[in-house]
Write a structure and sequence with these properties.
The chain is an alpha+beta fold. The protein has three helices and eleven strands. The relative contact order is 0.13. InterPro entries: N_methyl_site, Pilin-like.
Length: about 210
Amino acid sequence: MNRGTAEVTNCRQSGFTLVEVLVSIAIMMLIAPLAIEGVRTGLETWNRLEARADVMDRARTAQRVIRKQISEALPVKVDTAAAEGAVFFHGRRADVEFVANLPGHVSGGGLFHNRIQSAVVGNEKVLLLSFWPFNRVDGDESDIQRIVLGKGVESVEIGYFGAMSLRTRADWHDHWDNQVYLPQRVRFRVLREDNRYPIWSELIVPVYASSQQR
């Protein structure tokens, strides 16, 4: 073998032929879309998991707020045309109003009128907590504060457990109004905008002061 032939052979052994390069490029062109699709799918999965975790975190926070306020509802007596000596607790299927204390770092603390309901804020349906001083003058809404507890809410279904009178057994009711006692428990079921599936599982909250009234 002469020197020229040896040099050509060495070049072929140390490098790639044109055919090998073209084959490699073709393989990379086939693999690249699959790799990109895999990355995109991974990112979409991550984003879905992150969004779900965020929704669950907001739901847990909302449940903590509802549980705290409802459980600490107070049997404040008010005389109304419908019932003398009734407690201030207006429970309906779609909203509930009651009196509870707020901590000192929130609006100075004290007795507050609380309302939990589904409402429209901007263009979005939400689960809303509104509260204001219990002794405020009717018609003055300057001191009403609102907290959005959940978004994407179509409706809220609320139930009330207790005995309507001393002669009846405790049971679930879709309203609790003008009663001399607080309900023993309050149940929340928050529905999505499609009005089919609950945003969270049923939340049942005991009313602590109810057991002290009887």
